Amino acid sequence: MNPESAGLRVSEKNGITRVEFIEQNILDEENIQQIGEALGSLVDAQDTPRVLISFRDVAHLSSAALGALITVSNRVKSKDGELHLSDIDPKILEVFKITRLDRLFEIHETTAEGLSAFG
Amino acid sequence: MAPNEINPSDENGTSPLAGETTLRQGDFSGLKAFESSFFDSLKSIGYDEGQIFAIRLAVEESIANGFRHGNDGDPAKTVTITFAITATDLHVSVEDQGTGFDPASVPDPTEDANLEIPSGRGLMLMRAYMTEVNVIPPGNRIEMCFRRDA
Prior knowledge:
heterodimer, A: Transcription Regulator spoIIAA, 7 strands, 39% helix, B: alpha+beta, Heat Shock Protein 90, 3 helices, 31% helix, globular
C-alpha cells in the first residue's frame, strides 16, 4: 500500500520515519484498513523501526483507528523498535486517556519533543 | 418516515429534529450524507464543538460496530439509525441485522492485560461520551441518550 494513497505523508530524517495524516478524520473503515496496511509496510521495511506519528491535522478518530495504531505498536515492539506519537488534539488525547492507551503509547506534545525522545 | 429523511425544524426552530436512515455495508457516500446532515442539525440547534465531538464518536462507533460485529461484514445487511434531537437532549438508536451480543461478555479493554488488544473499545467509548447507553436484548440495538446539561 502506497502511503500517500492511504492518506499518509511520510518522510525520513536521521533514521526516524515521520508520519502525518493528510485527512482530518481517521474514521472511515476502508481508510483505516489502508492506513494500517501502509503503516505495517513501513514498519516491516525496517530492521529496527523508529517511527514518529504526528496527529497535527487530525480532528477526529475512532476505536478502529486506535486498533490500527495498537497493531503498529505491537509490530514495532516485536522488532525492538520505537514508536512515538505527537501533536494530539486535546479532545483526541482524552480518547487515549479514557481507553488508557496513554499508558501504552509514548505521547509527546510537539513533533520536536517526539523527535528528541528517540533513544 | 421514509428512509434517509430528516424533518426540518419549524419556523421558530422549536420542534425537534428527527429522522431515520438505513445504510448498507460499504455505502460510504450514504454514511457521509447522513453524518453531514445529522451533525449540521446538532450544530443548528446549538450543540457546541465538544458536544458534537462526543456524539459523533459514540454514533460512529455504534454504526461501525453494527456493520463489523453485528452484521459480521455481510454486505446484504443494513444498519438503521433513528434519532430525535431537541435543544436539551439527543436520543439515537442504532440497530443492525445480526443476532446480537451480550455486553457483559466484552472484556474490559482498559485492563493492563487487554491494552495491546486492537479491538473492543467501541462500547466503552459510547458509554464514556454519552449520558446513557443501553444495549437492547438480544443485543442488536443500541439506544443512546446525550443530555446537554449532564
